[in-house]
Design goal:
Layout: E1 3-9, E2 13-18, E3 23-28, E4 31-34, E5 39-42, H1 46-63, E6 70-73, E7 78-82, E8 85-96, H2 100-105, E9 112-122, E10 131-132, H3 134-139, H4 145-168, E11 171-183, E12 186-189, E13 198-202, H5 212-215, H6 221-232
Antiparallel strand pairs: 1-2, 2-3, 3-7, 4-5, 6-7, 8-9, 8-11, 9-10, 11-12, 11-13
């Protein structure tokens, strides 16, 4: 597989074309951002940690029958992925109240949510990823009703798989976001699953072991990511 020109550079990842029109190289950089890019830093080892963490999680989801775009690791910081036609709608599941939910509704952080909540957000940095509903997504052509139904079903299946996985490591999967795209007409999980895009707490102490350590200036960001990975079986260099 020949890596070719850079197609896109996001806040923490870069995407490259390959000699296969249906495959891309996803490069995880050490860059870290918060508050829609208002705060940016480079954290040593982050690209490697998130790349390996993501590949491990995507592998577990594939084993559970959930289609993902990841096809394999190419290096410590790169993986080969299917080229998806991305749907600009983020799916968010919350198992425990935290973050934006606490701010919006004034509920207590740490409150268990039974059943878990499901929310949709438009992927648009300039608008700060506003919350939307299914009607808006269909009306504006961001997704069809059928696509949204499949995305919701897959998001809840991911929740079932990963809640058990993290619980076995003494961790709470507080919340997370997923992005999907189309590959040969099939809804496929894209982007990444790492502590950058979810909240993970120690089940006993409620210590935050995710990107909130960066957002809140708690320090030890990459050490926390690696601790989470080790607890669930991710191998780092």
């Amino acid at each position: 597989m020949e890596k070719r020109q850079e197609l896109y550079a996001g806040k923490a990842k870069s995407v490259y074309a390959t000699d296969d029109p249906d495959r891309l190289v996803l490069h995880f950089r050490d860059d870290t951002s918060a508050f829609d890019g208002e705060r940016m830093e480079s954290l040593a080892r982050k690209g490697m940690v998130n790349n390996r963490f993501n590949a491990f999680i995507m592998g577990k989801l594939e084993e559970a029958g959930i289609p993902t775009h990841v096809e394999g690791l190419l290096s410590d910081t790169e993986c080969l992925v299917k080229k998806l036609d991305m749907i600009p709608v983020e799916c968010v599941v919350r198992n425990v109240a935290a973050g934006g939910l606490v701010k919006r509704l004034g509920v207590q952080e740490g409150q268990e949510l039974t059943p878990p909540t499901f929310e949709l957000f438009l992927k648009n940095d300039q608008l700060h990823d506003p919350m939307i509903n299914e009607s808006l997504a269909v009306t504006f052509g961001w997704a069809t009703a059928e696509q949204l139904a499949e995305m919701k079903a897959l998001t809840y299946r991911v929740n079932d798989v990963l809640k058990r996985l993290f619980a076995d490591g003494g961790l709470l999967l507080v919340d997370y976001k997923l992005e999907f795209g189309l590959f040969n007409g099939q809804i496929v999980l894209g982007d990444e699953f790492s502590p950058d895009g979810c909240r993970l707490w120690d089940a006993e102490t409620r210590e935050k072991l995710d990107k909130d350590r960066f957002r809140q200036g708690l320090g030890g960001v990459i050490e926390a990511y690696e601790e989470v990975g080790r607890r669930i079986g991710v191998e780092f260099k």
